[in-house]
Design a protein that fits this description.
This protein has about 325 residues and is α/β, with parallel strands linked by helices. It folds into 2 domains: about 170 residues, Thiolase/Chalcone synthase (Peroxisomal Thiolase, Chain A, domain 1, 3-Layer(aba) Sandwich); about 150 residues, Thiolase/Chalcone synthase (Peroxisomal Thiolase, Chain A, domain 1, 3-Layer(aba) Sandwich), CATH 3.40.47. It contains 11 helices and 13 strands. It has a 5-stranded mixed beta sheet with strand order 1-7-6-4-5, with helices on both faces. Strands 8-13-12-11 form a 4-stranded mixed beta sheet. It has a two-stranded antiparallel ribbon with strand order 2-3. Strand 12 and strand 13 form a beta hairpin. Helix 8 crosses helix 9. The longest helix has 23 residues. It is globular and about 55 Å long. The two termini are about 25 Å apart. It binds coenzyme A. The site of coenzyme A has 21 residues, from helix 2, helix 6, helix 8 and strand 12.
Length: about 325
Amino acid sequence: MNKKFGVKILGTGLYFPKKVLTNADLAKMVDTSDEWIRTRTGIKERRISERNETASDLAYMASSEALKSSNISPEQIDLILVATITPDMFFPSTACLLQKKLGINSIAAFDLSAACSGFIYGIATAKAFISSGFYKTVLLVGSETLSKITDWNDRNTCVLFGDGAGAMILSASEESDDVLSVYLGADGSYSDLLFMPGGGSANPTTIETVNQNFHTMKMQGKDVFKAAVPKMALAAQKALELSGKKLEDINLFIPHQANMRIIEAVAKKLDISMDRVFVNIHKTGNISSATTITALDEAIKTGRVKRGDLVEMVAFGGGFTWGASVVRI
Ligand SMILES: CC(C)(COP(=O)(O)OP(=O)(O)OC[C@H]1O[C@@H](n2cnc3c(N)ncnc32)[C@H](O)[C@@H]1OP(=O)(O)O)[C@@H](O)C(=O)NCCC(=O)NCCS
């Protein structure tokens, strides 16, 4: 295992649940309006999973597409990594449940929890395993059913989130390295600004925790906004430096889609014009770990980027966590 390998990105895929929830639908549920949501967040609609549709179901659909676009069979994968904060259940991991759905036996599989930065943390993990020679072909998925931990009576949060999954297949290469850089950061002292209090060892599920509404996301939106902008800009700058590339070398920036105003503020801080920034928040809302990878897949499918282009992805989320990566697609 002494040899160092590069990483080749073989393909990507995505899946969104069929059900669309528009701002007009939300205005019938809480005291809000299409105008408020659009102007404050940029979101027009989001996808919502069915009651019996799980994170591993969404992950399976996205993975199947990624396998097809990579032109490989499931048997060629030797590690499954799923980034999620809405696993099917505490255990077994969503990665193991996905493994079962894909019909692959006896390969390594585990989940990774880094909230909205989960996919960037996943790229770093996949790169470390591949470059060290531990694994050859990694299926990396970001999959979320945030609608299931959303408080549908809280207008401060319920307008922001959606469901979806994206997948990428990364493989060892002796010729090239498509993951030019990854930069990660975290600060747990902000853990009480975006979190879900119930269900874990701090507040095991009881009738009381249900009655106290501990099983849905809690957020101090303004504070999260204030931290997200500088941290995303910092991560983007650091990953760019580590890649040895210049701002003008990057063909497309893919920021985490949490709020259109956050995206614009980060672009302004980095001095990047918005025509070089990918935005699909109007259709998806914030889908946490699935955001950057679904955006990348859409950018590839719609021809915004082509094979060989350089893309910089940057994310920020609960924890707080943040990270960025420069990749060649
Ligand atoms: C949540 C967020 C959209 C709120 O926008 P904001 O401009 O900060 O709005 P404020 O929190 O100042 O609220 C302004 C007013 O709008 C109200 N409001 C909040 N949500 C509303 C909604 N959906 N519809 C109508 N009014 C709403 C508030 O109650 C407040 O009313 P008040 O002034 O009477 O108290 C914004 O702070 C945000 O996007 N934060 C980051 C969230 C995020 O990205 N989280 C995930 C990170 S990965």
